[in-house]
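Summary for the funding panel

The consortium committed to producing paired sequence-structure records for every protein in the target list. Below we show the first two records in order, beginning with the earlier of the two.
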Amino acid sequence: MDTQVMEPLGVRVTGLSLTTPPDEGTVETLVGLLADHGVVVVPGQDDVDDTAFAAFLRCFGDPVFTVGETPVPGFDDLNVISNVGRTTPPRSTFHVDTSYVSSPPAYTALRAVTIPEQGGQTQFSNQYRALDTLPADLRERIEGRRLRHVVTGVDPGEDQEKEAWHPLVRAHPVSGRDTLYLTTPARCAEVSGLDGDETAALVAALHAHSTAPDNLLRHAWAPGDVVMWDNGTVLHAADHSGVVGDRVMHRGMATGYASA
């Protein structure tokens, strides 16, 4: 297994086949790479089907499914992300997956099923760097504060969590490094100790800083790509502008480490 570190985040891993679940040592290596670099790109997985993809994800904890999403037929732990049959492009803003629960999934992965002729990149932000480069006044203002994350866009049902508080500055459970932890502004309902207007202004400033162009990895999909990321260290968003052709991904999530 060979690795190539990318900037400003991410690592490309070659010489690894996901047709069978990786051994414990490889999983530990991948956990470390995800904690340090946020995103792992594994190209050349043309022979990986949903059975192998789901088995790979189970190496990283229990499967997590967002109630309200469209499942992959025959695979209740995976969901479909697709633009097929849509008259308008899907909407995507930088976010963390399912952060409105008390223990969000640690990891998300996408398997490329159909790649469009043009466009359709997935973008990732480095939330370690976002915190480290915050202006001093903003860093001081968020210390010790918590953010209330709420659900939008899906209906999780009566028996599911719909909101949760998480620290804005979060110690990563694997690396121990502090990271900025937020999500799309629509899901950022309240910052502890601030009123509604103050919350909105602070979240907007943090989100804009986090997603500045020089803090982003833009992954252009190729057939056979599997991309996995650490929801504790990155925000992500699909770029649906200018997409030509069908774009179909299968997504899975795993609990991983215990959330802070």
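The next record, for a separate protein in the list, is shown here:
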Amino acid sequence: MSWVTKTFKSTLGQKLIMALTGLFLIIFLIGHVTGNLLLFKDDGGQAFNEYADFMTTNQFVQILSITTYVSILVHIIYSILLTYLNKRARPVAYAKVDPPKESSFSSRNMGILGTIILIFLVVHLQGFWYRMHWGEIQQVTYDTGVYKNLYAVVVWAFQVEWMVALYVIAMIFLGFHLSHGFASAFQTLGLNHRKYTPAIKFIGRAFAIVVPALFASMPLYIYFFISAPEKLPF
């Protein structure tokens, strides 16, 4: 057995995989939220529809998309595996005591937070990603060409109160998940230093607030300020 295989079969190696996939998904979130900001553009959805078409047809983006899907699956699988190994290593639970001061809500509940985010992700992919790739969506024509009107699908979805509530609540949980996961990933990679760790923690907390807040603002903006399509866009 090679040292590479031994490393990635060890608990440390599995945590390393969790850290690397987590950081990659953080980069994905930056790109995703940046593109989705086009929903705020007052052009009837043209910029967003052109962006959505580019993201589903460009070959380089498709490679990044596959990498993202694999990263999500690996991140989930290894989180379950690590949780199982931790419980097996400690079959008898410790006596219930007050959580230590250095233990945050996020660090104690990463499994629950991740599960809720996974449920949200399934709803999100079914409602938008699957529909964009294989669903019957009405098309719209601009000077630049003919595109699937995903913008109308998004606007229609976010006229529904429970859908808006689901997205906002899920983003709150994502914020908690990121608030621990961001700094934890750097620590797992050994990139912690008394000089830089405070900055990493600060950036992590800021990221965990700003990015989920931007995502949550989109359904709220659409619900309160954009009228629903006259007919279903699919």
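Regarding this second record: The longest strand covers residues 139-142. The chain is about 75% helix and 5% strand.
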